């Protein structure tokens, strides 16, 4: 008899087919620019995070895709990465899409059209987490607020680690924020949730966030990663690389971090390793990842 492997990370999250246009520079308002080429890639913050986590620990994705070809593509990509897709719902209609502009400096601008992602319901999440019984629940904010709430509530009720990547930025319920351990976010998101203006010193931002959440990890691109707990705030150095495409790097960071935390790594060590992995990703084209 084969023993089933315990799920370490359950990613409650979005899956999108990314339509990516590479441009020399992003257009200004009212301006037209020529794109270099258009490519499609499997994406969605949840899907990207699940792939990052699955490299290090048994991982499942809890989400929804549509009933189109994109759904087959995304499910196949998850399965080939070793992600358990048995809690991926198929809903009538299209799968989520994202339109992404990547400019020559490697930076991106993203518009997400949620489609099937917005059909995932709180009950789906609770039932899936009951069945998977993960050590860590990782989520972001491309799903309905009630779904995020259900993920946070399940983790709290079952005393499991809740890793929250509050992206894209919305006005988030205090209850959801309070469970975050850690809250994983970038600089702009950190300013928003801290309610502080640009230019505020990072330790002050972390201190403010720690009034709302248990632990904080702020990724600052090539600058550093700031990790805050009730005992210490540390600025971790990140590897310096030539930036090719930053798309999905933050997701990869969050997935890696969740997997390492789920396997018993300490937060500072996990953030160090996750930033090294994310740096490697940023230095490569998505087609080569
Ligand atoms: O973080 C990058 C991701 O954001 C959006 O979800 C896109 O689908 C893309 O893959």
From TrEMBL:
Gene3D superfamilies reported for this sequence: 3.40.1190.20
Record-level GO BP terms: D-ribose metabolic process
Span of domain Carbohydrate kinase PfkB: 9-283
Keywords associated with the record: ATP-binding, Carbohydrate metabolism, Kinase, Magnesium, Metal-binding, Nucleotide-binding, Potassium, Transferase
An annotated GO cellular component: cytosol
GO MF, one annotated term: ribokinase activity
Domain of life according to the entry: Bacteria
Name the record gives this protein: Ribokinase
Source organism per UniProt: Rhodococcus pyridinivorans
InterPro entries reported in the protein's UniProt record: PfkB_dom, Ribo/fructo_kinase, Ribokinase, Ribokinase-like
